[in-house]
Structures are given as structure tokens and as C-alpha cells.
Amino acid sequence: MNILKVIFRAPRPSNISDMPATVTRWWNRKNYAAITFFGYIFTSGENIAHHLNNRYDSLKNHEMIHLRQAQDTHNSWFCYYLRYLWYSLTAMRYYRKQRNAQYYLNPFEMEAYLHMNDLTYLDGLEGGTSGWREYAKMPLSERLRIMRENYLRT
Known about the structure:
This protein is mainly alpha-helical. The chain has helices at 3-8, 46-54, 58-72, 77-91, 101-104, 107-115, 131-137, 140-150, and strands at 21-23, 34-37, 40-43. The chain contains eight helices and three strands.
């Protein structure tokens, strides 16, 4: 799959109801099963892609939360990824306190991880999600506490 075609031909997030999963072995980092990218879910294995395309479970819900977050950031993939990058860069200073802090303390990932097992979370949230906005207002120390209490095992 040509990455530039994906980027420049991507529909607005509000025009997407379901994201297809596709395999790109070179894209995914180790320990991440899937990545949302401009309306697609990139995975590292055929079995994961098949699973995501045929079942709606917590992993698919996690990725669909990212779609709704993009809808909430001016309905723009570019605005979503710019904010995602900003939040990741600001959380990097916590790397000594938490491995992969730039990822886990990102408000977008916090909302997705903390609600991924609630398969009804997105029901009634057609215009996007806003939980990430509350996490973005919190200091990093508070985000770290919440993630350690609810998701991360230290």
C-alpha cells in the first residue's frame, strides 16, 4: 500500500464509518498490534488484520476511538496527528518514570486505553469524543497516576 496515496486520498474522518485493517510489517513497532493511520488500521500480521476486519472487540474499539478523536479535532487527520505529536513530545520528559511515557501519557491514547474494553463507549458519540480533552488539561503526574491505577502495570 502506497503511504502517500493513503495520506492524500484520505476522506475526512466524519466520512468514515469503519476502518479496514491491512498488513504492513515495516510500519508497526514491536508490541503494538495496530496503528490507526488516515482511516486505515495497519497491523503487523495477517491474522490480526483478518481479526479486525471480521470482529468488533476491544482492539477494534481502541482504534475506532482514535477515529472519533480525529472527528473531534476539527474533523481533520492532519490536526489530529499534529496534536498527537505535540502531546507525545510534551510527555517525553516522563520517560524515566514510565517506559514509553510519550505514548501512554498521550491524552488520545489514555482515552482509547481506558475505554477500549467498554464496547458501548462510542454509542451516541457521533460527533467525536472529548474524553481526551479532559486528560490533556491534567498535569503529566496526574496522567501517570491514572494510567498506573487503571492500565499500566509497574
